[in-house]
Amino acid sequence: MYPAVIDTYDAPTSVQEALQALANGGSNSYFLAGGQSLMQAIKARVISPKCLIDLQKVAELKGIQYEQGAVRIGAMTRYRDIAADERLDGAYQALRDAASHVGDRQVRNRGTIGGSLCWNYIAACMPPTCIGIGASLDLVSKKGKRTLLAEEFLQGPLETARHDDEIVVAVTLPAPSQSSGSAYEKWGLVTDALPVAGVCAFIEVDKDGRCQLARLAVGGLATGPRRAKAGEKALIGVTETDASAISEAAETAAASTETQSDMWADAEYRKKLIGTLAREVITTAFARAARGKHS
Amino acid sequence: MNKEISITINGEVYQHSVPIRLLLVDFIRDVAGLTGTHVGCTFEGVCGACTVHLDGEAVKSCLMLAVQADGRSITTIEGLAVDGKLHPLQKAFNDHHALQCGFCSAGILMNMAEFVKTNRKLTEDEIRGALIGNLCRCTGYAHIVDAIKEVAGTPAQSA
Description:
The complex is a heterodimer. Chain A has helices spanning about 15-25, 40-45, 80-85, 95-100, 105-110, 115-120, 125-130, 150-155, 230-235, 245-255, 265-295; strands spanning about 10, 30, 50-55, 65, 70-75, 135-140, 145-150, 165-175, 180-185, 195-205, 210-220, 225. Chain A is of the alpha+beta class. In chain A, the strands form three sheets. A five-stranded antiparallel β-sheet of chain A has the order 4-5-8-6-7. In chain A, strands 9-10-11-12 form a four-stranded antiparallel β-sheet, sandwiched between helices. Chain B has five helices and five strands. Chain B has helices spanning about 25-30, 90-95, 105-115, 125-130, 140-150; strands spanning about 1-10, 10-20, 50-55, 55-60, 75. In chain B, a hairpin with a 2-residue loop joins strand 1 (about 1-10) and strand 2. The radius of gyration of chain B is 16 Å and the shape is globular. The interface between A and B is medium-sized, with 28 and 31 residues.
């Protein structure tokens, strides 16, 4: 568990400098965000970068900004800071649910949302959470900018749509309706462990408390994080108090999700976990949406 | 391959040319000679024995390169007692018999020294949740939790 030789280390202070360092570094260059996953991969020599570009000094990549309800989270914003930001409550509270239970407090002091999304590990909380709440990612290269939905950006495990010459600068969220809520929950072998399965729900209700928009996203899958659209469809028109309809939608979400068997859970058990987690996060998201509606 | 760096550890500046791949924990132990910071899980980042403060925040020093700490300030277990006076947590660990073999203690103390600054009393659940990143194979944690509970929220921690 020791890194192979690394030829160059850069610590740029702006996005432009980071892109230049990437261009100079050649093909085996990696951006280093919080390093809580990448350093493990480097030490295990899963990857052996020749050039490391440390983003910790790029101030413009850090922090959470709110503008007329829309949210912009810098890619280098740490779990610690997301977990502590009560302004996310309601519509985007799932982010706090997820961030406050990633790893342990030492990991949350370093790990970042952008790092997690770019690594897209199979057992990670940020990927399904960002898909569930409808987040987008802003990417910048020397050629220009583009924006992708999290569900377009995140592909199979350890795969994303990021081009080699791009940097993810921010995760953005649209101004939510007042009557929306989200929640995330995971199940792992021990407290705050890597998720064997994780589910995020986003619910928006109308003035009568009926669900008019639902998103469900599942993590811990060999396919990469995925929406469970059949479950979402089953939630339309459902109210917070209709427990049996919520359970049915959760079961539909689990049944329609392709699961794998591995050393932590076989495929059928994973479906059970997803169904139970889905029911719980849908219920919590409804309650949070309802609180917004009445306030 | 090598880079000239300057890291302040416990108030003392260490300036050295080091390989880029050198881990921060090895800089602390082998270059600075401060062996109170331990390596438990051979660098997998799961045991927390190597926890130090980076500009006041608890981090695992095996999950960072030394070059990343260039220009930063590190506090290790050797820097926790000030002027020969034990940190309140160190005293409480002693009083509560919160260590047996002591291998994990440095990491736990550094993690908790930041955590107890929350300036309020902490519940057992909160303390146990905050200890997730530190493995102890002797104590069963009960005495560790007691020691931390006693210190959290006391005036000495409000600074």
